[in-house]
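Sample intake sheet
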Amino acid sequence: MRITTRGKVAVSAMTDLALHQRMKPVSLTTISQRQGTSLSYLEQLFSALRRAGLVESTRGPGGGYTLARKPEQIAVAEIILAVENMEVDDYQPLTPPQVAQLKAMTGELWVSFNARVLDYLKSVSLRDLMTQAQAQGVVAAPEQSAAAPRKALGVVPVRRPLMSRLQIPNSVFALGSMPLAPRR
């Protein structure tokens, strides 16, 4: 069993979702900002998680994702199996005779190892990860609403560049509609 970054990011994003959903959907944009993961990457992962029945999506304003079941009912193994491509053969760079020899010599070892890893991942629930994160000091911050004052949330307004404040046209059409400046 190969657990790639894809599986690790999915588990982390699902833990984030579980920590921050409060009877309302959580947008991927906020998860992306908190996790430092690209939005398009999360969209791919959550599409697979939705197909696996682990999350539900809500469209429109205030939309996002919620867990399809309670956190204690979702095993880490389900998350990883939903996003990982388990069809990929771990022996891909080897020739067929090398693969046959390797499987004959150590095949049972790896089958047993994979079964134990999968059993362990089945025993860990999303609730366990939430408890662990909270014990490490991760606090579920309230979602930022548009009506919330930005300073109270510690958000510093970003100054726009000088060019955007000077009323400079951004196209030839805007340039044609501007009044001419008087000649001196």
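Comment: The chain has eight helices and two strands. Helices lie at 5-20, 28-35, 39-51, 76-83, 96-123, 126-135, 162-165, 172-176.
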